[in-house]
Amino acid sequence: MEIKSVVAKEGNGNIQITFTIPFGIIKKAQDETIAEMAKDIEVPGFRKGKAPLAKVKEKIPEATLIEHSLSHVLPKALGEAITEHKLKLAVYPKWELISAKEGESWQVRGISCELPEVSLGNYKNVVAGEIRAASLKKELAKDEKEQVTIKALLDSTKIKIPSILVEEEANGRLSSLLSRLEKLGLALEGYLASVGKSAQDLRAEYAAQAKDAISLDLILSKVADTENLKVEEKQIDEALKVSGNKEGTESRRVIESILKRRAALEFLTKLT
After folding, report:
1. SS3 category, 67
2. DSSP secondary structure string, 174-193?
3. For labeling, which of 57, 87, 144, 247 is most exposed (least CB within 10 Å)?
4. Are 250 and 193 found together in one domain?
């Protein structure tokens, strides 16, 4: 028995991975799930953890059994699909159960994406030209040069951001807003009324901001790689202390990536 996977790339940049899972694999995962849950489920007439598994199964909601059983199967299946199809996924998939009939193979679809390719073009001339043009009108402060640079990069670089990345980033921004409003004791409806926007307007605005933010990160990372910009270890150490992040390989990687993008932006603002 083996799990089969089929990959389809969508026009919006997303990737669909559809898994067909033989029921024998599902049954084994269900049995493992029931055995795990039996330790904590109470069944009348039996001591806790001693009830027959068939009785325990009756106490587990179907949706819970499905979710936990698939959690035994999907991580390994995903890893095999990534290797087989040579995928470089940017985010962990969102899962959708297509079919789950007793005795038949189950079908599950994962939605993810790969990071898009970035074609910089003649970015240095574009940025330098925009900064010179803006400087003819007035002397630019550092932050103003950065804003001119950012706009020039976003306007001149063609990059297609997968919709799932935009959606996740926009959702994160909305969650942050809701958290801030909650701390202030404000309702979302009242906030929307005060700024004269509908919920749809706000989501569209955040989606546009998310798309620009993701695009800029990818562009600056590409510039940093193209220009072979380096970040010193002591810079990473200092940034970790200031941010309060715990020392670790992943934390260092994230901080290094941020510092490289910052270095790329500074490099571009000094082209003139």
Report:
1. helix
2. HHHHHHHHHHHT--HHHHHH
3. 247
4. yes
- Regarding whether 40 and 162 lie in a shared domain, the answer is no
Please tell me whether residues 108 and 128 are part of one structural domain.
no
Mean pLDDT of all residues in the chain? 90
Residues 140 and 99 in one domain: no
Is the confidence at residue 90, as pLDDT, over 80? yes
- Residue in the block written with tokens 């055995």: 35
Q: What is the CATH number of the domain that holds 231?
A: 1.10.3120.10
Which pLDDT band, with edges at 50, 70 and 90, does 152 fall under? very high
Distance (Å, rounded) from C-alpha 172 to C-alpha 112? 17
Domain count, the chain: 2
Cα dihedral sign for 95, 101, 103, 105? Answer: negative
User: What does the pLDDT read at residue 246?
Assistant: 63
- Strands 94-99, 4-9: pairing kind: unpaired
For the question of whether the overall pTM of this predicted structure is more than 0.70, the answer is yes
Could you give the 3-state DSSP secondary structure of residue 127?
helix
Do 33 and 134 lie in one domain? The reply is: no
Same domain, 136 and 251: yes
pLDDT above 80 (res 52):
no
